[in-house]
Amino acid sequence: MIFLVQIVGAVYGLLAVIFGAFGAHALKKKFTEDQLKSFETGVKYQMYHAILLLVLGFNLPFSSSLETNMAYCFILGTFLFSFSIYGLCLTASKGKKWKFLGPITPIGGLFLVLGWGLLLYRFVRNFI
């Protein structure tokens, strides 16, 4: 599990840099200001959680279901949240917005919130 978390964290970080550069240069001319802001939000959240996954991957043993489920929440949540935003922005810029992606973004956000909640619980569980 440690290896998976580290690999996914590194891939998410790599892609966040690529997508950020792509958004800042290639998409700047094709996106509206709102689409560009949304795309940048997806990139930011992807990078934040890439770094988090790397930190967790180097600091947690993933010996409990709590830690494993937390990692899956961050991995899945980041994918659903950021990549649905990318899809919404790209398709909207071509006039063919994939509306089915709209509900996926908040589901990804819920997974991210759950992951952070599990991380908080891991820290305070001995005090409760």
From TrEMBL:
Membrane topology: Multi-pass membrane protein
N-terminal signal peptide: none
Species for this entry: Saonia flava
Family statement: Belongs to the UPF0382 family.
Gene Ontology, cellular component aspect: plasma membrane
Name of the molecule in the record: Uncharacterized membrane protein YgdD (TMEM256/DUF423 family)
Main location: membrane
One of the Pfam families matching this protein, by short name: DUF423
Record keywords: Membrane, Transmembrane, Transmembrane helix
Listed InterPro entries: DUF423
Domain of life where this protein originates: Bacteria
Transmembrane segment boundaries: 6-27, 47-63, 69-88, 100-124
Localization: Membrane
